[in-house]
Request: fold
Amino acid sequence: GEDVEQSLFLSVREGDSSVINCTYTDSSSTYLYWYKQEPGAGLQLLTYIFSNMDMKQDQRLTVLLNKKDKHLSLRIADTQTGDSAIYFCAVNTGFQKLVFGTGTRLLVSP
Amino acid sequence: DTEVTQTPKHLVMGMTNKKSLKCEQHMGHRAMYWYKQKAKKPPELMFVYSYEKLSINESVPSRFSPECPNSSLLNLHLHALQPEDSALYLCASTSGSTYEQYFGPGTRLTVT
Reply:
């Protein structure tokens, strides 16, 4: 089955850029997503990218997709303390199912 | 409006109790999901309803019983749970076009 991996932890200073990485195994995935989860809350959809795109920008967020290397990244520009959360990438494996990555905890210090 | 609501927010139940979790969406989405999430882990899929019919059951124990009374509502009936079932239970729905899922805030369940 699909395997989606992320690094566990990332620490940045406020105002810096953050880059969260994700690798996956199933090259037939059509859509790839980024979710944010704050403590005790549900998952908030941040953005998604179709597999025939290699970049998508949405305000402070930039998603890069390298389909050849099966690598997805999320760049957050001008990171703020409110961006501290766990970030999950997710891959569509069939029209009803998502496979989530292991999650990256982002800590932003003042 | 991309809101999915869940009630209750918190639930504490004993191993002999019967309780239900409720999820509601008014986005016209035709697929709805139940996930279980343990601390510091990604959500694990439990059930998928598509057009009010159960389409996926990820081998979930029968002490969890899902129900979809109509296209906007999803319930999860709980009976004879174990302490290891304590977790955050998340509901989600999808539009079906780009398959992105919208999540509710979750129900924090504690089984004593």
Notes: Chain B has no helices and eleven strands. The first strand of chain B starts at residue 4 and ends at 7. Chain B has a mean pLDDT of 94. The interface with chain A takes residues 2, 4, 6, 31, 40-43, 45, 48, 50, 55-56, 88, 90, 92, 94, 96, 98-106, 108 of chain B (CB under 8 Å).
